[in-house]
Amino acid sequence: MKKIVLLSLVFSFTQLFSQQNNQVINTDYLSKVDRGNVIITKNPNIKGSPFLFKVWNSGMLVLNDSVFSKQDYLKYDAYKDELFIKNKGEIIEILDNDVTGFSVLDYNKKLKHYFVKLLSNNFKEKGKDGFYEIVSNLQNTNYLIKKDGKIIYDPNRSKGSQTINNYPLEFRDAITYYIKNDKGLYVKVRLNKRDIKAVLNKHNKLVNNFIKTNRIKFSKERDIVRLANYYYSL
Fold it and tell me: What is the DSSP letter of 212?
């Protein structure tokens, strides 16, 4: 696997991932310097896929929060937190530090997913550098994010049973949620009332009225975003 160099083409922008007022450059922006093929192989001993989506999807690379590069073929490895594109038959791993985010279209659900690169100092407790998905909403806020991880699960693990099974290892989703606190740091939470309200812990009367009036369900991402947007508007 080799690093590629991304050309620096900077222009003004109004909002991260907003394409309406920004120039979009095509896949030919890639430099010819130090390029090489990456071979993606499937481990026959592990069921499933480490990728967020099994197939290649169209998407957009974001460089330095300001340059948008349209991609016809993009894949995100959620197990290793690695990003790949396919350009003119070559599969290329994106290693450039200038890549600060990306978007990818889920063809099956017709939904676009937005990811931003965050460092450990963006979290209240020591987090992990990497790409995090911004839970999309009409207000384009970033109060709720999630780590779309994958784990390797062993279905043969027994709980005191002596039965020997021969089921293969498998990739499973491992999603972790974070909500932004009043200091602008992300706090790890579960999607339940106790965890969310421990972070959104001011304006209790107004918040409780909003929860009741809008029938907020804490298990739903969209409802948590609505609640966070309201909370930070107070």
Answer: H
